[in-house]
Description:
This protein has ten helices and no strands. By secondary structure, it is mainly α.
Amino acid sequence: VFQKWVNREISNFDYLIQLNTMAGRTYNDLAQYPVFPWILRDYTSEELDLNNPAVFRDLSKPIGVVNEKNAKTVKEKYISFVRYENFEDPLGMIDKFHYGTHYSNAAGVMHYLIRVEPFTTLHIQLQSGRFDCADRQFHSIPATWQALMDTPNDVKELIPEFFYFPEFLENQNGFNLGQLQMSKEVVNDVVLPKWAHSPEDFIYKHRKALESEYVSAHLHEWIDLIFGYKQRGPAAVEALNVFY
């Protein structure tokens, strides 16, 4: 599979799906759901220029420190994590970590897929029989990216649906997801980047970005973090890639 990918005989999307499968990740387990990378950093331009390297996320860094200003906080947390995370660890049994949450978990999958069943029902069950408050819902792709850049506390990567399933961006079932506290905006369809004119257009351009020359040249760097040698040990510490 690796050689086929290197030879450009299979797409980046197909290679990531196969890697996830080999790593034991599956659509049948929300706790081990397939994980895909954030690949873009430009969610505000009117047009998306895939020939410009500046529109892409730095795939060599964990999402929590793609914004350089978060790196200092993350390093300090690793050095004195008990103080930061309020962990009770009198025996000193918990290994140090950079992030108290994970780039892929069941709640994160439900967060992204809240508008489609069975994930809507699963989300409601998780929230004791009701929708979570609107401000915590997945309501905007640009706002979600901005939140990642503003704080290293949320480190969710993406799921494969961002590259093929436009329906998850639409509230086709008409769920009442509430309204945002500050702006009073009703949470309905997911707000798209300016360069996407519809959910289908977003998926088309996002998939095109995944298969772009830039991502093809740098995807191995992200794979090292998630599936490769930077997951554990000194390489993970150096890469600011240690999870609780």
